[in-house]
Amino acid sequence: MASNVLDSVLFRDSFGTPAMRAVFDDRELVRKYVEVEVALAKAQARCGVIPEAAALEIAEKCNADTLDFDLLRHETEIVGYPILPLVHQISKQAGESGGYVHWGATTQDIMDTAVVLQIRDAFALIESDMDKLRATLADLSRRYRDTPMAGRTHLQQALPVTFGYKAAIWLDMFERHAERLAQARPRVLVGEFAGAAGTLASLGDKGLAVQKAMMEELGLNVPTSTWHVARDGFAEAVNLLAVITGSLGKIAYDVMLLAANEFGELYEPFVKGRGASSTMPQKRNPISSELMLACAKGVRQQAGLMLDAMVQDLERATGPWHAEWIAIPESFVLSAGALHQANFMLAGLVVDEAAMKRNLGMTNGLIVAEAVMMGLAPYIGRQDAHDVVYDACRIVNEQGGRLADVLNAMSSVSERLDPQLIEKLTDPANYLGMAPAMVDQVLARYMSRK
């Protein structure tokens, strides 16, 4: 039985995805270790460090899938790292060429580079899920470009916006995240091969050539200097995930709030039984949003751990390096889970335009008091216009009625503004500002990057 939600039979597909778990699966990690060892042997043969025949035999015979995993686990517990036990086994697999396995390398070279390969695979999954999400958000932005709804600040109605404008703000965040991911790849997808203290001393004057050839074999960028204790690349990767899931948490929070009965403007897709309560049959809880928010909080915690792990001692770290083994897999799995929930939820999002219209009118025009103030300001000045409209709003709040009617009854207003103009000014649909134009700008940016 699993001891955490990421591996739990009950919860694992709520907080992650099978594809991302497979990237960070133990067996896949060991395959990556073997892939790095084979690439190292091939690179060294290319550079004349080991015989070509040895590299060919290592590549042909070393196989992660036929290893004794029980023995590997047992010896890893003793040694503290999996590479020495792994080298014991694959050296035997390599037969006569076994003595050339792991030539001139150190444990961290193999482990770090394997993690980089995992991150490369994981980034591809994150990018694919974000592409789906961006397409969905673009569709919502386009479809609801001109659908008025109440914009809210400090949880109170402020000014009218459109739902397309809200969705475009969500989309624009992920346009930036797509840029960040593209920009992070060259910095993060850098392999490591530097030897015991990072100087490549064991390979003499061929160290840098082997390093370059090894990265070519793996399709990774070549480091300009050793990064055994310079962990900004991995920290950037996890903190990028924290930023991405932070945006997912913001979307989730919006949807949860607007799904409350008192708003009733948005609902997650209906699936029979989903979000049901064990005691309240009427409930339809926003499960995907809740999971997105939980995942975001989890990634944020791991991002902090990665920043803490950057503070490492001298040329090879002690405990901080080990902390990364916790943070990196969990962050990617949680991020994949959050994106999966977001794609499901937003693709089937129920938008209640009637509720948006109803809520927009609930203040009887107060939501566009600014529009009236700005319409009156050219006649009596901005401050006096503010005071007049403020008094009118107080009457509506205390005595009820429509803002338009109260304004028409005030001589300071009716003598300057035609009743039809007041009606127009107090219609929320007429005070959307540049919201639709901003939607167009975001969509144009999306289409240019698509």
Your description of this structure?
- With 450 residues, the protein is mostly helical.
- The protein has 2 domains: 5-354, Fumarase C, Chain A, domain 2 (Up-down Bundle); 366-426, Fumarase/aspartase (C-terminal domain) (Ribonucleotide Reductase Protein R1, domain 1), CATH 1.10.40.
- The protein contains 19 helices and 4 strands.
- It has helices at residues 12-15, 18-23, 26-46, 52-61, 69-79, 83-93, 107-143, 163-188, 207-218, 232-258, 287-309, 319-347, 353-360, 369-380, 382-399, 403-408, 411-414, 419-425, 435-449, and strands at 148-153, 156-162, 266-267, 350-351.
- A hairpin with a 2-residue loop joins strand 1 and strand 2 (156-162).
- Helix 7 packs parallel to helix 12 (319-347), helix 7 crosses helix 19 (435-449) and helix 11 packs antiparallel against helix 12 (319-347).
- The longest helix has 37 residues, at 107-143.
- The two termini are 43 Å apart.
- The model has no long low-confidence stretch (mean pLDDT 90).
Number of domains: 2
Total strands: 4
Largest sheet: 2 strands, antiparallel
Low-confidence stretches: none
Query: How many DSSP H or I helices?
Result: 19
Mean pLDDT: 90
Query: What's the helical proportion of residues?
Result: 55-70%
- Determine the strand fraction and express it as a percent band: under 5%
CATH names the topology of the largest domain as Fumarase C, Chain A, domain 2
CATH architectural group of the largest domain: Up-down Bundle
CATH superfamily label of the largest domain? Fumarase/aspartase (Central domain)
Shape: elongated
GO molecular function: lyase activity
Organism: Citrobacter arsenatis
Protein name: Adenylosuccinate lyase family protein
Keywords: Lyase
